[in-house]
UniProtKB/TrEMBL annotation, chains A, B:
Cited function: Catalyzes the first step in the biosynthesis of NAD from nicotinic acid, the ATP-dependent synthesis of beta-nicotinate D-ribonucleotide from nicotinate and 5-phospho-D-ribose 1-phosphate.
Catalysed reactions, as listed in the record: 5-phospho-alpha-D-ribose 1-diphosphate + nicotinate + ATP + H2O = nicotinate beta-D-ribonucleotide + ADP + phosphate + diphosphate
Pfam families in UniProt: NAPRTase_N (PF17767)
Protein name: Nicotinate phosphoribosyltransferase
Gene Ontology BP term (one): NAD+ biosynthetic process via the salvage pathway
Segments forming domain Nicotinate phosphoribosyltransferase N-terminal: 8-132
Enzyme Commission number(s) from the entry: 6.3.4.21
Pathway, per record: Cofactor biosynthesis; NAD(+) biosynthesis; nicotinate D-ribonucleotide from nicotinate: step 1/1
Family note: Belongs to the NAPRTase family.
Keywords of this entry: Glycosyltransferase, Ligase, Phosphoprotein, Pyridine nucleotide biosynthesis, Transferase
Post-translational modification: Transiently phosphorylated on a His residue during the reaction cycle. Phosphorylation strongly increases the affinity for substrates and increases the rate of nicotinate D-ribonucleotide production. Dephosphorylation regenerates the low-affinity form of the enzyme, leading to product release.
One GO cellular component, as annotated: cytosol
Length: 428, 428
């Protein structure tokens, strides 16, 4: 069991840097760090900012308690001065960033952390862990939602990822437009609708399939989903309707050629008078599998592995870079990683119709912006105090609107360029 | 913050199945569930069992407290009978499985859970989450260790995955043979050696590179690693040796064409008299990048993204299936997922030289086994009580021995068949 505070979920070099900086007097230099992606994974056309809501809570409680400090001192990782500094740590700077549910592109400054070097650098691992994980899941999930064309998707991938990631993944998928999750902790923590009825084991436990279905209907009523593919799907559907009657809510199919099976199942259900009984399909669903089923009589999808692993891109490629020291822009100069220094401000420009056209990012200044433009950064923490920010529900709606606003090519599933260009204007 | 117990990190359908089974009297039927993989991801030649050490601790503490039960009842997910059952839950059955660090192949029964239907089914999500995550990381990490041919690898991927996954990933990478981790919580929880010195931000914070190096050496001594690629690598190395002297422990290069840079850096270090100063390389390291550097003068690797995301296979594809009810083998019959029912026992056969030749898995019986063979399952929990099992250090050594034992083709990085065949012998 993890008996250490989240503050220890950090990379050692942050603390050794703080040790050295406390010793040489640079620890208190005012710095600005920025989180951004150099590129989008695998030819994706947009990224989705996910995680700030979770992150701000974690930063608010980011403390090194006696157990953590004792470990660090005992292991010789920090000296006495640093141990004392850590024991008194509380972030007192500012954090600004893109709203949760906002789209981002290569170079978008999605989070800006300002304060002393030491108080900012110690948050690096936590900030990147939360944003890289949650944004990776949300980006893949958003593509699935687009592919599903309004049909609901259930997130059911908990078992395919770390037990704690599973809860955050359910949150990110809901942000991206999924209808519900199988993960109960996500329901309890974030108020996400939960769903789930039965597995093949439940059918196998019983003497036969009708007995299993009768038991489920007796316990959960007819407003339930019967899993009909344990033995033979056709017989399974007949058994389901025989037991529950034609007003059964739904049947689920978890294996086989889902296109053909959905058609046959619809015909069979209709022939049995179960014209309102829905068809739920699951099993290796990603955005491509969902798109393939667009024309089939499917009412709902269940997605697991692909959603919790970012559908081929399990991390969002976000980095945390020092861009300003005491008001002076700084930048790493080694080849192929040229970035622009200085604190950046971002605006997204739109046509009068509302379609986004470009993102302008200005270093140490504010871009010109007109009525159709939108400044993208907001305050999350001001002088160490968290600021109110939107609910998960509001962020979900914000993403929905953002996806409507990008040029239609941006919603294609194929690999391509970012949906809109980002122009970074260096310090004049 | 997660304020709910791990018992809530579960899929809703487990609890609805329990509700129905409590109602119809099947909840107490004696069952056997098995964890296995139908295939290895991406043409991998072996899987690595990782996670049991973490899992058994979590199962020992798997309880539904008042907060969890209140949520489930309040949300209408469980009825009163089930709520009462959950409140009294404590696993009282048996868990047997492959040792941590053991290899597995498609069909290997790596974990066997026996008890009543209800007490076993409720553990499904937790068991799969832990084993799927940890085994995915360990499998990719083991390939990197093979590719590194004895050179040490540092795990530094925390920032690329969920903050809690990061700690488990560091553990799995260490199990697989990594030398150390940057993750402090993994050091504190599991006794894994931690390492880490400085980032580019530390150099940028200072007025110039020599000032940053001098500060680091003043704080950490010459037995440290200076990051030399913030500006110009050649100048960085000259600055490093000028500041620290020729007995500096190591320099790190994090970008660029690492083959060429390692050669040039070695020549330069030697010309400066720093013949013992080591070269550490990092930046997008996976098993293929490591293999490419085999002939270069590299002393140590740092791996991040690839290791925490399973190097292309972020989940191990393990499933949890009901195989026996009241002593009777059961199996799902739908197409393409034919499995053999019944509790299985596994033996790995070896040549007299120690090379593994095959795995034999027998349903409801014990395979013949001779002196060179090894029964693969051991007890983890007996009648609800955890049994002593090997330390992480011992499991690490076990994996090292297992990798020596497989045919040499099994260690190739290219896609191929499993290193040894698994024959599953159905119930006679």
């Amino acid at each position: 069991m993890n008996t250490f505070a989240p503050a220890l979920m950090t990379d050692q070099y942050e603390l050794t840097m703080i040790s050295a900086a406390l010793k040489d007097g640079t620890a208190d230099r005012q710095c600005v760090f920025e989180v951004f992606a150099r590129r989008l994974p695998g030819g994706r056309r947009y990224g989705v900012v996910a995680g700030p809501g979770r992150l701000i809570e974690l930063i608010k409680n980011f403390r090194f308690g006696p157990a953590e400090v004792d470990f660090l001192r005992g292991a010789g990782i920090v000296d006495e001065t640093t141990a004392k500094w850590l024991a008194g740590y509380r972030f007192s700077g500012d954090i600004d960033g893109y709203a949760e549910g906002e789209l981002f592109f290569p170079g978008s400054p999605i989070l800006t952390v300002s304060g002393t070097f030491a108080e900012c650098v110690v948050l690096e691992t936590l900030i990147l862990s939360v944003l890289n994980h949650d944004s990776a899941v949300a980006a893949g999930a958003a593509r699935m939602v687009t592919a599903a064309r309004g049909r609901p998707i259930i997130e059911m991938g908990s078992r395919r990822t770390h037990e704690d990631s599973a809860v955050a993944a359910a949150r990110a998928a809901y942000l991206a437009g999924f209808a519900s999750t199988s993960n109960l902790a996500a329901g309890a923590l974030y108020g996400i609708p939960t769903t789930g009825t039965s597995a093949h084991a439940f059918t196998l436990l019983h003497d036969d399939e009708p007995a299993a279905f009768a038991s489920q209907v007796a316990a959960l009523g007819k407003n339930t989903t019967l899993l009909v593919d344990t033995y033979d799907i056709g017989q399974g559907i007949r058994n389901a309707i025989a037991v529950a009657g034609p007003d059964l809510r739904a049947v689920r199919i978890d294996s086989g050629d889902l296109s053909v099976l959905a058609q046959h199942s619809r015909e069979l259900l209709d022939s049995l008078g179960a014209v309102e009984t829905q068809i739920v399909v699951s099993g290796d669903m990603d955005e491509y599998a969902i798109a393939t089923l667009a024309a089939e009589p499917v009412d709902m999808y269940g997605a697991g592995t692909a959603v919790v692993t970012g559908s081929g891109a399990p991390t969002a490629g976000l980095v945390y870079k020092l861009v300003e020291v005491e008001g002076r822009p700084v930048v790493k100069r080694s080849e192929n990683k040229a970035t622009v220094g200085g604190r950046k401000t971002a605006v997204r420009r739109h046509k009068p119709t509302g379609t986004a056209t470009e993102e302008i990012v200005v270093s140490q200044g504010v871009p010109d912006h007109a009525a159709n433009d939108r400044l993208l950064q907001r305050s999350y923490i001001a002088a160490g105090e968290p600021v109110d920010f939107p609910t998960l529900q509001e962020s979900r709606e914000h993403l929905r609107q953002c996806l409507i606003s990008i040029p239609w090519e941006g919603l294609k599933l194929s690999a391509g360029d970012p949906a809109i260009p980002v122009t970074i204007v260096p310090t004049v």
